[in-house]
Amino acid sequence: MTIQDIIRTELQRRLEEYGLFDEDAVVELEKPRDPTHGDLSTNVAMTTAKRLGRKPRELAGELAAKLQFDKDVVASVEIAGPGFINFRIGRRHQVAQLLDLWCGEGAIQDIRVGGGRRINVEFISANPTGPLNVVSARAGAFGITLVRLLNAIGYDAHAEYYVNDAGRQVHLLGRSLRARFSELSGRPEPFPEDGYKGQYVARMAEELLELDSAAIQQQAGVFNDESFQRVTAPEGDARDWLDLPPDESARRFSKYALMKILTWQRQTCRRFGLRFNTWYFESELHETGRVERALEQLRKSGAVYELDGALWFRSTDFGDEKDRVVVRSGGEPTYFLADVAYHFHKYQRGFEHAIDFLGPDHHGHIPRMQGAMRALGIPDGWLEVQILQQVNFVENGRPVDMSKREGQFVTMDALADDVGTDVAKYIFLTRRPNSHLDFDLDLAREQSNENPVYYVKYAHARICAVLRKAEAGGWQLRNPSRRTWPGCSRTPSGTSCARSSGCPR
Predict the structure, then answer these.
(1) 144 and 245 co-located in one domain
(2) What gap in Å lies between CA 248 and CA 175, rounded to an integer?
């Protein structure tokens, strides 16, 4: 029984003495707004007094005098206002509930339902075309939390970041950088239509102007782990790149931009406490032939057909609104085919389940991807997709524009500088991922009851103070157990943690 059940049962037993039964007197228990009024409160005396011809406060006093509780469970019963009955929960009972959660039957640290099953959790996977923005921050908060929870209950969860380094956007970024660099070099040229106009591109160009070939090569040295072996610096001096053929020139500027932006993105992720087991590069799929092999497997299953010189996937067979191109008439594979090959390789790497966190513009991506997995012979349900809805930042009562190409957007680093990483992650986790979130920057900065993080920070500070005082007094911390708290054996069976059962903070 929970503490609410204990109190409600005793109240109903006493109300029956007045001829009031369950259907006549519904006992509602709530937490008082003011913690000084107790831990739980009921207005049942006020709702039943009229039927009994009594004054509410007088009836409340009689009921309170009749109630019988173990003092370790309910420490006191008090009357307040026009007839509220307030209850203060015994501290020993609260400790007992927490110990049930920690070291009782089915204790939380003993939950191992995963059985070592390997799960791939992919999140953020932002285009390497600029600093990470707030949508990535929300994905990071949910992704890393899920990975940690899965590992805590016995799964082998694997955090993964997919780098889209082989698409048109990276090429466009390189052309944008070239335009800024040529302007600074005294050789201005037209800025590409739909190019990236952010200040970070201009900053990259300014830094690049000061580097010689050796310094450019040295910058690639930060990528010294296995996941980033594909990230290398472009050859030669940047001024000489302007004289190369257009495609080669764009390739070198793109390569430099990719190196710099991945440096920023990885640093930002580490700042937010996000550690990835793997950074998986799209370019590897093409260079190793995995895209072609995935396409061949789709051919064998009869899931593709040719029309107007292009190859199409029969995604309507799997619930999609229309069939999708996988190879264009010019012979170029689409992003969709690369994504199919990437997930096929996840399955081939031995992951028994895959979870993707995707942005709000990816709803239509779900049926075609899940259909492609079925066409490849992968079991239904293997791929799970969680859609993260848009984050709208509000400051001074006005929305903050987040357009990357226009150069005005809130980055993860700016958010961390402003409100802190823990505050940001906590606020992201207070709303379900499929709900829109208006992130009030002014509220996140607030150090008052209005800020949802305030109580957590305050509780943490108090706990740290208690631990410091205990250590100064010669106390040593150890894991709790029934032997540590022998009096807790009196706790009712089946209780859960104090917070979930309605006990005070």
Answers:
(1) yes
(2) 11
Residue type, 160: E
Instruction: Please check whether residue 304 is in contact with residue 372, taking contact to mean a CB–CB distance below 8 angstroms.
Output: no
Q: Is residue 207 domain-shared with residue 280, that is, in the same domain?
A: yes
| Closest by Cα among 354, 352, 293, 334 to 160 | 354
Distance CA(21)–CA(23), nearest Å, equals 6
Reported in sequence order, the residue ranges of 404-452 that DSSP labels E, i.e. its strands, are: 437-440
Q: Using the CB atoms, write b or e for 16-53: b if 16+ within 10 Å.
A: eebebeeeebebebeebeeeebbbbbbbbbbbbbeeee
Q: Evaluate if residue 404 carries a pLDDT over 60.
A: no
By the 8 A CB rule, do 63 and 11 touch? Answer: yes
- pLDDT value, residue 453: 86
Give this prediction's pTM: 0.75
Domain co-membership, 85 together with 123: no
* pLDDT tens-digit map of 108-159: 667 788 999 999 999 999 999 999 988 899 999 999 999 999 999 999 999 9
Give me 91's structure tokens.
């501290």
Residue 264 is assigned to a structural domain of this protein: yes
Same domain membership, residue 404 and residue 260: yes
Q: Is residue 247 part of a domain?
A: yes
Please indicate, yes or no, if residue 355 is contained in any of the structural domains.
Answer: no
67 and 20: one domain?
yes
Angle at which helices 246-271 and 412-419 pack, to 10 degrees?
Answer: 30
Q: Are residues 219 and 136 in the same domain?
A: yes
pLDDT over threshold 60, residue 275: yes
pLDDT at 486 > cutoff 70:
no
CATH number of the CATH domain containing 228: 3.40.50.620
Going by C-alpha positions, the residue among 356, 405, 400 that lies closest to residue 195 is 405
Percent of the chain with pLDDT over 90: 71
- My answer on whether 171 and 244 are in the same domain is yes
For tokens 């019963």, the residue is 77
Given 59, 93, 127, the domain boundary residue is: 93
Q: Which tens digits make up the pLDDT trace of 429-440?
A: 999 999 999 999
Lowest mean pLDDT among 310-314, 336-340, 451-455: 451-455
Residues near 203 by beta carbon (within 8 Å), at least 6 away in sequence: none
Residues 212-257: tens digit of each pLDDT: 999 999 988 877 777 788 899 999 999 999 999 999 999 999 999 9
**In which band, very low, low, confident or very high, does the pLDDT at 382 lie, cut at 50, 70 and 90?**
very high
Q: Domains in the chain: how many in total? A: 2
Length of the chain: 505
**Domain residue limits at 279:** 119-287+389-445
Q: Do the domain assignments include residue 294?
A: no
- Break the chain down into helix, strand, coil percent, rounded to 5: 45, 15, 40
Examine the domain organization and report whether 252 and 128 are in the same domain: yes
